[in-house]
Structure formats: C-alpha cells, structure tokens
Design brief:
elongated; 6 helices; 143 residues; mainly alpha; single chain
Length: 143
C-alpha cells in the first residue's frame, strides 16, 4: 500500500521534510541536479565502464570542456558518487572511479540511456510531428 506523501505547510520544521525531493528545501535536490545534468549523467555512465584518468574521461564524454568536467567530478565526489584516486607517480596520476552508490545510480542511468537510444526513431518522429504542427501555415498568394 502506498502512503501519500505529506506536503509541508507554513510554520512546519523543514528538517522533517529533508528526504522529500518534491519539497524545495530537500537536501536530495542538489544531488539530483548533479546526477541528472547532461555532464553528470554522461560522466557516471562512462565511469560505469571502469576507472578513467581525467583526460581519457574527457575524450570519452565528447564535447565536455575541461572546466565543466572538473566541476562535475568535484560535485559527484562531494555527493559520494565518485572516488578520486591520486597515484604516487611521476608525473602525478589521478584516476576517477565510482563508489558503490555511484555504481547503483549509473546502472539506472544506463537503463535510461539504452531506452532512449533504442527509442530514438520514435523520438525523431514525435519531434518532426511536433515541429510540423507548429509551423505557420503557408500564406495565400496575393492577386
């Protein structure tokens, strides 16, 4: 049996709503933003393949800038999704991998990615239908 999720009312203590993603003060919202962002989802999915060094991950996630990938990895590391491993070597080597939680999240993201990739023909048809319905009607030739 599912229990309806309560909604906070004015004057409620926000701490009791900390685990309700639909509440604006929910602590999980920023984490959801990090994993559901384009670069966050792609970084997690790529790291599901195995550990990557920074530049190899940047090549794998085609199109991401160095700055954006760095920011994304820092956020995912802070959220407990990614491990950053510094190897003592010359030159220094840093490798990124998933934590157990990050692997669980990445598994679900990969399911969504695979669903979208397999449904791409349907998506394309829907986009074309949508765009065609919103095109202005051709104007009548003037006499």
């Amino acid at each position: 049996m599912s229990v309806p999720s309560p909604t906070p009312s004015d004057g409620d203590d926000t701490a009791q709503w900390a685990a309700n993603v639909f509440f604006r003060a929910c602590a999980s919202r920023p984490v959801l933003e990090h994993i559901a962002s384009k670069w966050g989802a792609l970084a997690l999915a790529a790291l599901r393949e195995g550990p990557y060094r920074f530049n190899a991950l940047r090549r794998r996630v085609d199109g991401v800038s160095e700055k954006m990938l760095s920011q994304t990895l820092h956020a995912l590391e802070r959220d407990g999704m990614v491990n950053r491993h510094e190897h003592s070597a010359i030159p220094p080597r840093v490798e990124y991998s998933l934590t157990p939680l990050g692997a669980q999240v990445a598994d679900r993201l990969i399911d969504v990615i695979e669903l979208l990739e397999s449904a791409l023909p349907q998506v394309t048809v829907a986009q074309q239908r949508y765009d065609a319905a919103r095109q202005p009607a051709p104007s009548e030739p003037s006499e």
